[in-house]
Amino acid sequence: MVSYTATENSIRATWSSLGESGNVVLSYSIELYRGYSDSGSPVDSAYGFAASSRAVNFYNLSPGTAYFIKLWGNMQNGSRRIETTQAYTESIYIPPPSSPTNFRVYDRGPGYIGATWNAVSNANGYSIEAYHSANGSLQASAYGFSGTARILSGLVSGVSYDLKVWAYNDGGNSSSTWLYGIKAGNTRPSNWTLFTNYTSGQSISISASTWNSFITRIQDFYTYRDLNPTMYSFTTAYTGNNITAAQINQARAAIAYLSPSTNVPAAVSTGGTVLASTIRGLQNSLNSVA
Length: 290
Fold this sequence. Notes:
Distance between the termini: 77 Å
Helix content: 10-25%
Mean pLDDT: 94
Number of strands: 15
Largest sheet: 5 strands, antiparallel
Structural class: alpha+beta
Number of helices: 3
Shape: rod-shaped
Order of helices and strands: EEEEEEEEEEEEEEEHHH
Low-confidence stretches: none
Radius of gyration: 39 Å
């Protein structure tokens, strides 16, 4: 009977003498086949070696692979006595990767969410999915990519989604990392331009309808940023009344809360003069909201 021991890349075949009373072994031959039979050509072999031998080593084999060993004794009477056995090399254990960390949103826009995460050291790649938060249905996905950021598109603006990302390698998938209740971005309001032509020294005259429209535009930016558009109270402008310092400061505070990249102008003192530069400054600040 042929026995064997194996590593990931080698097999050692061993046996007892195949000789019989009155019919001794003159030499041995052995063949190693990939698979489960001796069909095809052997991947390794040794022929006519000494009858005193009881072992042969096969090297440079594939991990986790089936091999078929065929051994025969070349007998004194001219016959062959054949023994076979099935052998397997050991598989290489590859641990699956760790879960991605610092999973976060880096961009949102109309119908899409951009997510990113920290690289996993032993990962071959990543996959990501977005599920509708309300009913759990899969809405967007990307599989088998190498980067650590992905845009998930085809979503509905203002709707919440749960995002799942995982890493993978030859050892399998990591456990998943989740983000919950992420809304696809709303469409950004267009820039406000009606204050563009105000120049220093010019008498400020803003109609009630224009000012009220400006306030509505500020509230549109709140909706775009998923904020409550009624978070700030605004005094409605009426025809025949001048825009007051209080109304200017209300708009200023509301814009400042949106963290514009262009600073809001200074507050206007009660009873103070509303300057053209202040009006243009409100416009420029609002338009700098990302």
